[in-house]
Write a structure and sequence with these properties.
With about 200 residues, the protein is α+β, with helices and mostly antiparallel strands. The chain contains 4 helices and 10 strands; from the N terminus they run βββαβαβββββαβα. Strands 1-2-4-3 form a 4-stranded mixed beta sheet, with helices on one face. A 4-stranded mixed beta sheet has the order 5-6-10-7, with helices on one face. β5 and β6 form a beta hairpin.
């Protein structure tokens, strides 16, 4: 019997109050309430295409702007991923996806090595997608990488439409993370010559 890999994390500051409930071995169900419609849509795509069950509730200082809500959501989601992975025994560790979304083509690669490193080679034609500042996409994934301890590379290979480009990023991340977090019966401990991740 497989132990359920899940986590519920709450983080409260003077700027945000965030709760994330994540189940890695899910079916892609989500309940997202961030107060930023486009961001909700992106997180739903991440969950659906990664087969994660994900609930996110964010109460943030949107009267200022979306920065704190989006960045802090990345901090909490990264923490939830790290906790849900547990000791990482049996996981594939590496995952990658090249995903098309109409005109957009995105490459995402993940290494759940325990060491944070982040590369984001994506430029967007527009400054906003809905009510989300597109510069916050990088801040969100940076926060995930560093709180999870994940090596994360994202590169936009081509694209014209900002909405499509960002959607490709979130969906490709979901698929790459699903692969990296997936189990392989051939891996008896952890996939590292050091003996730990």
């Amino acid at each position: 019997m497989m132990i359920e890999r899940s986590a519920e994390i709450t983080r409260t500051t003077k700027e945000t109050d965030i709760t994330v409930n994540l189940k890695l071995d899910g079916s892609g169900q989500s309940r997202i309430e961030t107060g930023i419609g486009f961001f909700d849509h992106m997180l739903e795509g991440f969950a659906k295409h990664g087969f994660f069950d994900l609930a996110v509730r964010v109460k943030g200082d949107l009267h200022v702007d979306a920065h704190h809500s989006v960045e802090d959501c990345g901090i909490v989601l990264g923490t939830a991923i790290r906790q849900a992975l547990g000791d990482k025994a049996g996981i594939k560790r590496y995952g990658s996806c090249i995903l098309p979304m109409d005109d957009a083509l995105c490459m995402c690669t993940v290494d759940l090595c325990g060491r944070p490193y982040f590369v984001f080679d994506c430029q967007f034609p527009a400054e906003k997608a809905g009510y989300l500042d597109t510069e916050l996409v990088r801040e969100f994934f940076y926060a995930i990488s560093y709180t999870c301890g994940m090596n994360l590379h994202m590169k936009m290979l081509s694209g014209i439409n900002t909405h499509h480009m960002i959607e490709a990023i979130f969906k490709s991340f979901g698929r790459a993370l699903d692969e990296a977090a997936g189990k392989d019966d051939r891996i008896k401990d952890v996939l590292s010559t050091k003996g730990s991740l």
